[in-house]
Amino acid sequence: MTTNAHTLATQQPKQGFLAWLWTWLTTVDHKKIGILYLCGAGLFFAIGGIEAMLIRIQLSVPNNTFLVGDAYNQVVTMHGTTMIFFVAMPAIFAFLNAVVPLQIGARDVAFPFMNALGFWLFFLGGLILNVSWFLGGAPSGGWTAYAPLSTDYLGSGMDYYILGLQVAGAGTLMGGINFLVTIINMRAPGMTFMRMPLFTWTAFVTSALILFAFPALTVGLFMELFDRVFGANFFNTANGGNGIIWEHIFWIFGHPEVYILALPCFGIISEVIPTFSKKRLFGHTSMVFATVLIGFLAFMVWVHHMFTVGLGPVANSIFAIATMAIAVPTGIKIFNWIFTMWGGQVHFTTANLYAIAFIPTFVLGGVTGVMLAIPAADFQYQDSYFVIAHFHYVIVGGVVLGLFAGLFYWWPKIFGKYLNETLGKIGFWFFLIGFHVTFFPQHFLGLMGMPRRYFTYQAGDWLATGNMISSIGAAGMAIAVVLLVINIVMTQAKGQRATGDAWGMGRTLEWSIPSPAPEYNFGQTPLVQSVDTFWKEKMDGNKKVTPAEPYGDIHMPNGSIIPFLMSLSLTVASFGFIFADETGTGIHKGALFVAILGIGLMLLCMLVHSLKDDHGFHIHKEEVLEMEKKGEGA
Amino acid sequence: MSAVEHGHHNDVSPGHPELTTLEGRNKFVGFWLFLGGETVLFGTLFSTFIALRNHVAGGPSGKDLFSLNLTFLSTIILLTSSLTSVFAILGLKELNVRKMRFWFWITVILGLCFLGLEIKEFTEYLDKGLGYKTSAFSSSFYTLVGTHGGHVLFGVLWISTLMVASYKKGITAITAPKYYIAALYWHFIDVVWVFIFTVVYLLGIVGS
Q1: Among A51, A87, A145, A275, which is disulfide-ready with A150 (CB 3.0 to 4.6 Å)?
Q2: What is the C-alpha separation between A329 and B183, in angstroms, rounded?
Q3: Is the pLDDT of residue A72 over 70?
Q4: Helix/strand/coil (H/E/C) assignment for every residue in A305-373
Q5: pLDDT tens-digit series, residues B178-208
Q6: Above pLDDT 70, what percent of chain B?
Q7: Is the pLDDT confidence value at B50 over 80?
Q8: How far apart are the C-alpha atoms of A100 and A268, rounded to whole Å?
């Protein structure tokens, strides 16, 4: 082992673009992977945002001809799919990677190699989906890809949807397992489960949801693929298939997915509000209880997406009550956040503005959620713009506001520089007002009878004013996003450098080490003695958290190109399947061969990885001490 | 804390060689969780099969095709292979690489026999008119049982690779967890087969 291990000093950094690219292609450092996830999410956010603007331009005036028919369907489908799977999911994983190991006092995640693999699968999955624009048209079956519409009646676009999500979904599942094991096995001494910061708790429950939700999607997508490519009959009623099976499978994945996205954002809010209120989180224990309960209930309510399918009043009632029950633990959280601010010294930083704005916005989304949970009422609301308004209040009002709060809060920790606060606050007001102007009128548009997924409406329908207001609001959100991009560029160019405890009032372990964190995270594994352990140490008059071990050599994993190659192999396989599908005219044999080749390459990569022992390297004690000293100076 | 983290040696002692390093413990927990995900995967395939098992669309049904003799033989072979993989793990825990290798090779051979029988079975059904495209029943049947068969094939390849490598690497703190989780995987495949035997074949023959 020692014979093969080499030290940091022997790894001379090379110069030039290729060396730089190689570093990022082969990295297994969770902090770098977090940055990669953030970049990926940012890229797709721009694409999904442009698609949103196209939708709002089309709907801004009656009888518009800007984007009609199939083109509109493609844009709507891609907007939904991109925002859920390729923006919100990777943004969550960006924060999980950047923060969770630091919060639990770990040097790494459990499976660094698999972590890199998860990122590349997500990223290449997103590319598979998006190249569809240039290769015969994007998917147009809606982000839910209901069968048999998606399997029998739509063109090759649906193949990109199926395989893009399949590849990205595999990556997500790996990420979920990785963080579960990291949190179970790698907490610092003294970090009991009840001392875990709330963000780590939500990461834990979210990872468990991923573990049990994504395999169902995997199976569903395979069924659609087999129906399309191999002529299977899962959803083909002529040969005994049943499209309702897809709805069940999609939503037993899809409903927990909402909580997979929302829970970490609840976690972010639960970090930001106590920090900027200079108080410990009110009701930490009940917050943990509420998180677990929401995680459990997430799996019990999928049928509320299917009230109008005709499963009968008994099924509908059971799922209606289960759905409404989610309001209880969510309410616990809302009150705990408010009570945390109560009597605290509230600092209105940009991060905290987003966190505070999150509370009423998300409550509005929750209230319309309870309205939709009543089956009799849902028969009226379903497939109307009311539903659009509801889930944007939840997903934007809950998830995106939470993500922005986290972005401003942890940016100094991740990059070592502060985002500009003034620009951040201007952006915040543009985003918040723009958001409400966009989506609040949509409740009324829905109640007035405007259906979702339709590309136009008539002048005399009384829908024109609301739609125009909505489109103007969307422009406000777009301005906010542009301001954020400017802010990021400015920060990179000449941002103010951040200290370890960047906000001066950090409570959790990630603030006890330099910003950005050194490669090995903690020079000495910390000894955790309470909730908000860093805050307690500061109150006890200590500058540093009490260490649990003396300084020593630190073992690190080597970088590897194999995760990238594995993802590339699956991309090759995906394109094989995409071009093998000639729905109605049989299979294209040559393309199928390419698909098999891709899978073969994947297995080969697995074999190489399995047989090649990777011993990693050591950062020697002297180097650690030197770097720690430098970190204190910064 | 452990051998691999401090990088001093690869020695392992009998008992739980798969748990001597943090990497090993991570693999152990991670693999159990992965099997949780696999359970959902198979659960979804089973639910679909149960929903579609009587939708034969004029094609042959399970009752027309399934033979209890053949399935019984497959079951015995696979259950025995689970037992032999237990013997292999006993060898691992005693740090007896020869014993472990012997029983894992037997496991691989039994897995191959099982696959042979499955290929024979599928070929017979094809001859009797049950193609993949015939009916919703056929699609869900071949997908469920075929996914299990694919898992068996993957297990055979995986264990074989590990065994080939074991001639060079023996039992160390790095290899022990790999052997251990391969055996876990093999048990999981067997458990899934027990459900397939019950839900697909027994209910297909006796149930209606």
Answers
A1: A145
A2: 41
A3: yes
A4: HCHHHCCCHHHHHHHHHHHHHCHHHHHHHHHHHHHHHCCCCCCCCHHHHHHHHHHHHHHHHHHHHHHHC
A5: 999 999 999 999 999 999 999 999 999 887 5
A6: 95
A7: yes
A8: 11
Q: Is B25 on the interface with A (CB under 8 A)?
A: yes
Which residues neighbour A494 within 8 Å (Cβ) at sequence distance 6 or greater? Answer: none
Question: Which of A212, A239, A610 is nearest residue B57 as measured by Cβ atoms?
Answer: A239
The closest CB to that of A233, out of B25, B47, B136, belongs to: B136
Here the ipTM equals 0.94
Query: Tokens 């698999």 correspond to what residue?
Result: A114
CB pair distance less than 8 Å for A241 and B33: no
Residue A505 at interface with chain B, using a CB cutoff of 8 Å: no
Considering only residues 119 to 158 of chain B, which have any Cβ-Cβ distance to chain A shorter than 8 Å?
A: 132-140, 143, 157
- Cα–Cα dist A371/A373, whole Å: 5
**Contact yes or no for B165 and A186 at CB 8 A:** no
Q: Which of residues 512-571 of A touch B (CB under 8 A)?
A: 552-553, 555
Mean of the per-residue pLDDT values for chain B?
A: 92
Residue A348 has pLDDT above 80, yes or no: yes
- A180:B41 CB<8 A: no
Give the tens place of pLDDT for each residue, B70-92: 999 999 999 999 999 999 999 99
In chain A, residues with a C-beta closer than 8 Å to the C-beta of B22 are 185-186
- With contacts defined as CB-CB under 8 Å, which chain B residues touch A211? 33, 36-37, 40
CB A557 within 8 A of CB A32: no
Q: How far B187 CA lies from chain A's nearest CA (Å)?
A: 20
Interface of A with B in 182-211 (CB under 8 A): 184-186, 211
pLDDT at A354: 98
**Around Cβ A492, how many Cβ atoms within 10 Å?**
10
* pLDDT one-digit tens code per residue, A268-310: 999 999 999 999 999 999 999 999 999 999 999 999 999 999 9
- Alpha-carbon span A31 to A522, nearest angstrom: 13
- Residues linked to residue A417 through DSSP beta bridges, in sequence order: A497
Helix H, strand E, coil C: the string for A377-442 is HHHHHCCEHHHHHHHHHHHHHHHHHHHHHHHHHHHHHHHCECCCHHHHHHHHHHHHHHHHHHHHHH
